[in-house]
Amino acid sequence: MTVFNLRAYDDHENVVFCRDKESGLSAIIGVHSTALGPAVGGCRMWEYNSDESALVDVLRLSRGMSYKNALAGLKMGGGKSVIIGNSKTQKSEALFEAFGRFIDNLNGQYYTAEDVGINPADMAIVNRSTQFVLGLEGKSGDPSPLTAYGVYLGMKSAVKHRLNRDSLEGLKIAVQGLGHVGYYLCEHLKNEGAELIVTDINQESVDRVVENLGATAVDKDEIYGQQVDVYAPCALGATLNDLTIPQLNCSVIAGAANNQLAEDKHGEILKKKNILYTPDYVINAGGIINVSMELEGSTYDKQIACEKVSAISDTLTEIFQAAETEEKTTNVVADELARKRIAEASR
Questions:
Q1: Does some domain include residue 8?
Q2: Catalytic annotation present for 139
Q3: Within this chain, do residues 117 and 50 fall inside the same structural domain, yes or no?
Q4: Residue 196 forms part of a structural domain
Q5: What's the pLDDT tens digit per position in 252-267?
Q6: Separation CA 35–CA 64 (nearest Å)
Q7: Could you tell me the pTM of the whole model?
Q8: Which of 68, 75, 80, 272 is catalytic?
Q9: Is the distance from CB of 65 to CB of 287 less than 8 angstroms?
Q10: What pLDDT was estimated at residue 197?
């Protein structure tokens, strides 16, 4: 397995392979860029089918964090980490303490936080071994509510641009993935009167949304073909691919998942289908904006965090308009703008 020849490798500054035999830790840390500041990005725990798939994921995710932080106007670079393992059966204090020691060895080049499969309690254990942890309880806390809030606002911007509607009331919205962020998003959508069609690989998560929010559940493979106004991917990445895109029957894609496009070419395919794609790392930046307040050294204030998250709408509107004017896809416009900001900071 080579790192430098992988398509996902994008001149990353640092890639660290972490192994602790005693605790069973196998992890990878990817630092994409520190041009704008220390690299910041969450840690996810997932049972990858191979070490290479874990590496590709961390490379794509860390690059996405660089772009996300740049377009959110944050003085932070991009990084990400993955722990290879089953988050339901393989967590231990020793594992997270060992992971913290690897984080600490980077001396502040990378700050970690929670992501898929990780919770604030896990990060508190990591914090025993290193100070370079964000999103802890008592500080900015769980970033999921602000991530969902940003996705909700971004979805409204996309609906306004494509459907010329100020409200989501009466719209049919398909939500794939009902974890922390997905559930909070569904709450926002229900409160505005949207009709929810949902799915998740976890039946308990599905039952919760159906019971509490009156959603309609469908099989995980049926979510793509639903006739809806908005499709909101909020699970893992690469769900917009050669197999799923032909099934889509929506006008807007706006969701919380990272790396939603399996390849850049899929942005062009969506454009040809007249589906407005909302760049994932722009719309889902609410959580990192929330966490960033810890690095700024100011006292955490949720109201101020929400005000900062609301700027996501303006950024998306700028991207939508530029994509139309320049006859480009929204993902290309977003990438170009992010790279420009990083390059300017590097100079």
A1: no
A2: no
A3: yes
A4: yes
A5: 999 999 999 999 999 9
A6: 14
A7: 0.89
A8: 80
A9: no
A10: 98
